[in-house]
Design a protein that fits this description.
The longest helix has 8 residues. The chain is 15% helix and 26% strand. It contains five helices and eight strands; from the N terminus they run αααβββββααβββ. It starts with a helix and ends in a 9-residue tail after the last strand.
């Protein structure tokens, strides 16, 4: 991380934070920060590095083989990362048109991950708008595909250690006054489980 703005940010969340039950981690990630440090070549129409900061307002928990909606329901080469180590990024291409970013949870050897669904832009908003081709601020990170596009996250970061300072990490932020729950979005199996966690007062949630 470079620059005074980056120096003022909280340090990355430790691996121990993620090495806990997925539902606990998911709830506590609402309000956490996603920090993305871009090199000049990654900034559209830019010549200087940029630090993007977003506050998570919506996440979803996905468990292991006991969760039919989870990629870990059946272990595959793609989903093997969900068994650990905790704190690693699990990034995959969804429906052939966008990336989704998750963070691996649970002690190593137990599968689990939290999908980052939506966030509030806090820093580097103009750069996010360029990455999102002029989207209005409210819609910059509303939805998992928009979130990864606005933060320039793709499969290069699959397996990335989010617990260390660098181009992509998660940090402690400001927890909301309340965390609400609901069923997860856009799934058919285990659709009744209330494993979506969000800030009910935030206008940046996806729905």
């Amino acid at each position: 991380m470079r620059g005074a703005g980056a120096a003022r940010l909280a340090p990355p969340l430790a691996a121990d934070f993620f090495a806990r039950p997925t539902l606990e981690v998911a709830r506590e990630l609402v309000g956490a920060l996603v920090v993305r440090a871009l090199e000049p070549a990654e900034v559209p129409e830019g010549r200087e590095a940029a630090v993007l900061v977003a506050r998570l307002v919506e996440v979803e928990a996905y468990l292991g083989p006991q969760d039919p909606a989870s990629h870990a329901y059946r272990r595959t080469p793609r989903s093997a990362i969900m068994w650990g180590p905790p704190g690693r990024a699990y990034v995959y291409f969804s429906y052939g048109n966008h990336h989704c970013m998750n963070v691996v949870t649970e002690p190593e050897g137990t599968a689990g991950a939290v999908l980052l669904r939506a966030a509030e832009p806090l820093g580097g908003v103009e750069v996010m708008q360029r990455l999102r081709r002029g989207a209005v601020v409210r819609d910059l990170l509303r939805g998992p595909g928009r979130l990864t596009q606005a933060l320039a996250v793709d499969r290069r970061f699959n397996g990335w250690d989010l617990t260390r300072p660098g181009p992509l990490y998660l940090a402690r932020g400001q927890p909301p006054a309340q965390v609400a729950t609901s069923p997860r979005v856009g799934i058919r199996r285990a659709a009744d489980r209330p494993w979506r966690f969000f800030d009910p007062r935030s206008p940046f949630v996806s729905r």
